[in-house]
Structures
1.
Amino acid sequence: MDLRDAALAVLDELERHLQKMRDDNQPARLSAAEAVAIVYKPLAVLRAFANEKGDLIDQGREASSRSFVKGIRTQPDALFFAKAG
């Protein structure tokens, strides 16, 4: 698994939940807190990966990846989702 796979696992879980809401004729809308509750496990994996491999990513000097890893490492979950939205 790499950073991309871990991030995609978070997005896939959110997408599944939103599609289920849509299929159940519910508004497909989530607050940041609701999103965190839904993706708690894959988000924990993403955060662990960022903490474990983040220094290697920082050495790559790729600005968007470095910024993403910094956000995962330092921001509370709800703020991370609020900024993404």
Note: Residues 3-84 form one domain.
2.
Amino acid sequence: MALRPRWTAAAALVLASVPAGCGGEGSGSPPVAAGIPPTPSPAPAPTATPTPASTDDPLFAGASIGETIVGPLVCSDGRVTTGAQGEVVGIGPITQIRNTDTIRITYVGPDSYRTAIDGLASLAFTPDTKRVPPSPIYARYSAPSAGELLLGQYSLGFVTFGTFTAPDLCFFAGGLPPGVLNRQTVDYFGIVDGLGVVGGVQSRFFNATYGEARMIFDFPTATGLFSFDLVQRSDPFGDFRASPPVKLGTVSANVVLAPGQESFFVPLSGAGFTGTARGRFVHDGGSILGPNIGGAGVALVYELRSPAGDLIYGSVAFAANLI
């Protein structure tokens, strides 16, 4: 199997899309953040351009063999049900969500990955653990002894997203070593994935081209804001993209980076939910076009609850084209 090509300017931030079933583009604008100095109005967020799904390894945040992506991880305590090959097919009642962990995934070689979470032993996923994915947006690796790793098949270049189950079902986003850009205002667009229980019904919350996910960050003042739509879909452990999307509303948050920091933990609210979001800025300092040129990302996870007892948790992979 051929190795993936390195990221190039010509391919910058084109989404490797999948078969239809998403619906039309969303609309709307990001929230207004109090206390952020005025900046020129940014250009509209880039529009996702469908292209055939990759048939090679997942496009893994620009990582080469031997490199490790790092990112936040959010998990629930629901007991998962697995199939004969270790693949997740369901989950029991969820009472708690943990938004404190960090995941490290090393690209060992073609179809080979090694995962490690704070304080836990590492797990290996090899070519013989590659399985048929539940949805074409993911590549799936699973085994009864190792759990399950789903890696997003969208070509974001400098950030990735997915799920990791061993044994808790967790969502993550990640990228190469974190960094804050030496630039002015950067406009990011994102892909959202998550799981929720709303009205007693388990649903997937996936948003790529139906709805909006956007972050605007002003690096000189270290302040910004982000928002994303909550798009509900049925069949949460199957091909959920084929189900009709239902937009519940929009959540948003302001972000302020402390001096010298690349990570943040902020309150998140909207659509009748409140919760938290935790993220880190990432970029490829070794871009072929030089530092701070080419592409960048923000890896983010979130958890939300409503007064009625509904809950949602998941990840957002934000990407920006800096050319």
Note: Confidence is low (pLDDT under 50) at residues 1-56, 285-290.
3.
Amino acid sequence: MAAPMARVLAAGSSALRRRFASSARHDDAKEAVKWERITYAGIAVCTVLAIYNLSKGHQHFPDPPPYPYMHIRNKDFPWVSLTTCATRS
């Protein structure tokens, strides 16, 4: 009884072996290195483009016209200006 059971376990062990990859190719490491290099090149390109775009000046929009419905208060503040307080002493 022990001999047939050992034979079944020995034959089934190769079938029960766990596969961690979807393919059994040997060049998977080369493929991983290739995509790692492509990723680093893409990071470098994106960084250079971001620096270029951020270094350019941006447009300034003109001031909006003074619409009467905005109720902007142009009165002076009721407290003393901080610049006059500093120059008094």
Note: The chain has a mean pLDDT of 76.
4.
Amino acid sequence: MTPIHLKDVLTDVKEVPFETVIHLEAVVFDFEFDYQQCTATLMHPNVTDADIDIYLYKTLEGYDIKMMYNREQFDDLTVNTYANLIQTLCQQGIECPDISMKGMSLMTTAQDEALLETLQQVDTLPHRTVPELFEEQVQSALTRTALRYGETSLTY
């Protein structure tokens, strides 16, 4: 069983360096492509020369992904984020095998929809002029400092 290094798979992504896309004592994450299982196994410290190594193995059941990383460089949340990112990319590769890495999304469909919903929420702005807004501020804070120069300060 010969491993395929994920860096070799990502060679068609030229705009973003691999180190930017995929960024601790080494841990191996195993994924099943039915996305029902994700396990982490602590390995010997510093078994990787890089900050993080990601390998894709072809097995009889499909593929396994192994992540080995330097614990001094990353916390568990960061590595779990990368693991979820890789899982998302793999899922897209399975669903659309002809898609290039450029065409893949770094977020899940649910994340895309949540972001779109957030961006579509528009607060209505008050239909008042700047002088009107200033007058309201003055009325709500008559004793607050409006201007300070050296030792001199003026309230509204």
Note: The chain has a mean pLDDT of 72.
